[in-house]
Amino acid sequence: MNIISDRLTEIGVVPVIKLEHPQRDAAPLAKALCAGGVPVAEVTFRAEGAQEAIRLMKEACPEMTVGAGTVTNAMQIQLAAEAGAEFVVGKALSLLAWNGFSITAGSQVYQGKALILAPGVVRQAKYPGEAEFLGRGVSYCATCDGMLYRNKPVTVVGLAPDAPQEANYLHSLGCQVVYVSPHRPQGLDGDIPYRKAGKLAVKGETTVTGLEADGALLPCAGVFILRRAVAPTDLLPALETEEGGIRVDRRMATSVPGVFAAGDCTGGPLQVSKAVGEGHVAALSACEYLDLQDRPQAAPAK
Ligand SMILES: Cc1cc2nc3c(=O)[nH]c(=O)nc-3n(C[C@H](O)[C@H](O)[C@H](O)COP(=O)(O)OP(=O)(O)OC[C@H]3O[C@@H](n4cnc5c(N)ncnc54)[C@H](O)[C@@H]3O)c2cc1C
User: Fold this and answer.
1) Would residue 32 count as lying in a domain?
2) How far apart are CA 8 and CA 122, in angstroms?
3) Which of 198, 226, 254 is the last residue of a domain?
4) Does residue 129 lie within any of the structural domains?
5) Looking at residue 211, which CATH number applies to its domain?
6) 252 lines ligand 1 (CB under 6 A)
7) Same domain, residue pair 116 and 53
8) Phi, psi (degrees; rounded to nearest 5) at 67
9) Containing domain of residue 217, as a range?
10) Whose CA is nearest to atom 9 of ligand 1?
11) Which of 22, 93, 185, 225 could be disulfide-bonded to 52 (CB atoms 3.0-4.6 Å)?
12) Do 86 and 163 have their domain in common?
C-alpha cells in the first residue's frame, strides 16, 4: 500500500468534480468538502480549467488530497502534477496478463499482482469484422499500438471525447489518418481528413485492409476504434462470461487467476448495494490471493 491509497481507503469515498467556474467555485467547494470530513477530490480533465481547479483547491486546503481524473496522456499528467495533483485516474486501454498484470492508461503503465475489475455495465455492439481482426489491424489504443502503424494509412473511429487527441497523436507519429465518426469532432488537427459515417465494417484478409464507411471503402492497415469504455472481455479475452456479465464465484474470483470482478459488470441486479457488497468481497479476496502468493506453500483458503 502507498500513502495515497491508504488515505483514500481511510476517507472511503472520492467525489468526482467537474467545475464550470473554477475561479468562483473551486476554493469554496474544497473548504466545504474538508469541513464535511471528505478531504479528497478527483477533478476530471474532461472539463476545461481542471488544472486551475486543482491548483485553487490545493491552495485553499493544502491538507486535501486532490487528484486528476479522465487523464489520457502524459502532458495532462504533467499539468496535473504541476497544479498539485497527487494521483491520476485514467481509462484502462489495454491489459497484459503476464507475470502479474500490466495495465495501460493513457501513456502510463501500471503493474500489479492482482486485479479487480469494476467497470460497470459495458455493453457495446461490435462492428462487423471488429472481433475477427482484433490484434490483426484492429486496436482500441492509439498510445499502445500507434508505433506499429508509423507511416501507414489508418482510420480512427472516434466514439470517445478524447478520440481526436488520439488521432492527432497518430498523425504526429507519421500515420496517414482518416477520422470517421457520426458527428464532427472537436480538437482534430486541421490536416486530418474527417468523414461523417455511422455504418461501419472492418475489411481484411489475414490482416486489416480497409474500413467500409457508409458503403465507401477506406483502404488502411489499421483501424483504431476509440470508445468511451473498453469492455473487460476486450481487455482480457480469457475472461468467461455468463448471461452478458463476467462469471464470478462467491469470492468474486473470475475464470482468470488473480482477477476479481465486482458490481454491474458481473450482472444483475444493477444496484448500488450489490456493487458495494461485491466490491468489499472482491477486495478481501484479492488481499487473500496476494497473501497466498507471498506464501506459496500455504493451504488454499476455504
Ligand atoms: C440513471 C441511473 C439511475 C440509477 N438509480 C439507482 C438507484 O436509485 N438505486 C440503485 O441502487 N442503483 C441505481 N442505479 C444503478 C447503479 O448506479 C449501479 O448499479 C452502480 O453504480 C454500479 O456500480 P459499479 O461500480 O459496478 O459501476 P459504475 O458506477 O458504473 O462505475 C464504473 C466506473 O468504471 C469506469 N470505467 C469503465 N471502463 C473503464 C476503463 N476501461 N478504465 C477506467 N475506468 C473505467 C466508468 O467510467 C465508471 O466510472 C442507477 C443507474 C443509472 C444509470
Assistant:
1) yes
2) 26
3) 226
4) no
5) 3.50.50.60
6) no
7) no
8) -125, 175
9) 138-226
10) 271
11) 22
12) no
pLDDT tens digit string along 90-134? 878 788 888 899 988 766 788 899 999 998 887 677 899 998 998
Same domain, 152 and 116: no
Query: Which CATH number characterizes residue 33's domain?
Result: 3.20.20.70
Say how far apart CA 302 and CA 296 lie, in whole Å: 15
Contact (Cβ atoms closer than 8 angstroms) between residue 247 and residue 241 = yes
List, in sequence order, the alpha helices (H) in the chain: 3-11, 22-35, 50-60, 74-83, 142-145, 163-173, 232-235, 272-294
Does residue 117 share a domain with residue 260? yes
Residue 298: the pLDDT is 54
* 266 CB-near residues (< 8 Å, 6+ apart): 245, 246, 247, 248, 252, 278
Ligand 1 pocket residue status of 236, Cβ below 6 Å:
no
- Mutational test site, ligand 1, from 89, 264, 274, max ligand atoms within 8 Å of CB: 264
Cell reading at 87? 494521483
Burial 18-29 (b: 16+ CB within 10 A, else e): bbeebeebbbeb
Amino acid found at 4: I
Query: Is 169 inside a domain boundary?
Result: yes
Residues 213 and 81 in one domain: no
> pTM value?
0.73
Coil vs helix vs strand at 262: coil
Give 121 Cα–ligand 1 centroid separation in angstroms. Answer: 7
Percent of the residues in the chain that have a pLDDT greater than 90, as a whole number: 62
